[in-house]
Amino acid sequence: MQFNTIRIEEGIKLHKINTKKFKTNLLAIYLTTKLDRTNITKNALILSILKRGTNTLKTQEAINIKLEELYGAEFNCGIDKLGNDSIFKFYIESLNDNFTYKKENVLRESVNTLFEIIFNPLIENDRFNEEYFNSEKENLRQIIRARKDNKGLYAYTRCIEEMYKEEPYGLYTYGYEEDLDKITNEDLYKTYLENLKNCKIDIFVSGEFSETSKIDQIVIDNIKKRELNPRKVEDLYITNEIKKSSEEKVVKEKMDVSQGKLVIGLDIIDANREEKPIASVYNAILGGGANSKLFQNVREKASLAYSAGSLYIKNKNNIIIRSGIESANYDKAIQIIKQQIEDMKNGKFTQDDISNAKQLIIASFKSMQDEQDSAISYYFGKEMEQENMDITTYIKQIDNVTKEQIIQIANKITINTIYFLSK
Q: Burial code of 317-341, b = ≥16 C-beta within 10 A, e = fewer?
């Protein structure tokens, strides 16, 4: 696997992952903008409208027919948060030109189609198609209202909201119904145009492509065609967030749930960028799998939880513990979880715990090289962190983590918020 990056224009980069492992090419385009309450609902609505049709492919049916013509290419898109940024993600996966029946240039057509969907939406009278605007507005309303249907995910997002009150990262990815009602079609289209002027654009291509495929020129031609310059791109890179100690908060919420949802947000105080691989190993020991301290002590030994684990959010220097418990077991579960955190500070974990944690992380990173979308996500993260580190180098950093380093990280861990959703 070979990876290299080309700066095409101000705020626009092409990243190429050249590999012979796959019979497909995966093209991904990321648009990065600032995360704020003003635009988060608009951004989710824009994404929904873009996939409905373009000025040349006016309906979803027309888009699907085009994809079928490209040997059954697959299109997908989504929106996410990364640090304090909002990320539009667009993907198209298609058959590599080497495997097509008549050696058609499917890569070129795939690039053209993805650019068409993102940068040439169906516009009428300086606004989005009215039917698409109205229908997607109602669809988004249902998505926002359905947030409570997945109780585990709801509890997780509520804990994040409580941890990051009045901060961009605390915003719900799909926005808010009260903001949705205020959005007009004209205003939404203006926001879309502003996003194009100010967003960071990262274009990824993964697959086998030679000089004859001319992928660089295909991308450059599309950029020129879409008139994406001149642009005023903000500084959207992710910096290491330094956490300070805060008073522990407890938030309890009632809802009709079959089991309680306990989410505990931890801060890693004063952690620097170089400590992130150490924090990854710490998290894996604490709650990263079936061998972790949380799984073994909360679920297996005490039989208090249906599930127990933790997630490391490295760009925010947070670890989030999640567990499903009976409401009556709340106090006991909190006690055992806090004991695991304390045991980590006192070095009460074995070399086997460290080895198992490292194997878990390394296996997941090695698998990235067998999954085109995972490799693209990894390199996009490194682009946003302004780090030039391939997967093999990161694996070596994980492998070199020592017990002493893990204990040092453990002693930087504090509880920010305990959130409990119950009947």
A: bbbbbbbbbbeebbeebbebbeebb
Distances (CA, A) of 204 to 29, 100, 270, 316, 373: 6, 22, 33, 25, 10
Count of domains observed in the chain: 2
Under a CB-based contact definition with an 8 Å cutoff, are residues 190 and 366 in contact? no
**Distance of CA 301 to CAs 67, 294, 305, 317, 333, Å?**
52, 10, 10, 29, 12
Nearest to 87 by CA among 12, 11, 32: 32
**Separation between Cα atoms, residue 183 and residue 41, nearest integer Å:** 9
| 307 and 385 housed in the same domain | yes
Q: What is the pLDDT along the chain (423 residues), one digit of tens a residue?
A: 789 999 998 899 999 999 989 999 999 999 999 999 999 999 999 999 999 999 999 999 999 999 999 999 999 999 999 999 999 999 999 998 888 887 788 999 999 999 999 999 999 999 999 999 999 999 999 999 999 999 999 999 999 999 999 899 999 999 999 999 999 999 999 999 999 999 999 999 999 876 656 889 999 999 988 877 767 787 889 888 888 888 999 999 999 998 999 999 999 999 999 999 999 999 999 999 889 999 999 988 888 877 899 999 999 999 999 999 999 999 999 999 999 999 999 999 999 999 999 999 999 999 988 899 999 999 999 999 998 888 999 999 999 999 999 999 999 999 999 999 999
Q: Can you list the alpha helix ranges (DSSP code H) found in 73-172?
A: 106-119, 130-145, 151-163
DSSP one-letter code for 366: H
Which CATH number characterizes residue 316's domain?
A: 3.30.830.10
- Please give the helix or strand (H or E) that residue 239 lies within, else none: none
Residue finishing a domain among 226, 257, 292: 226
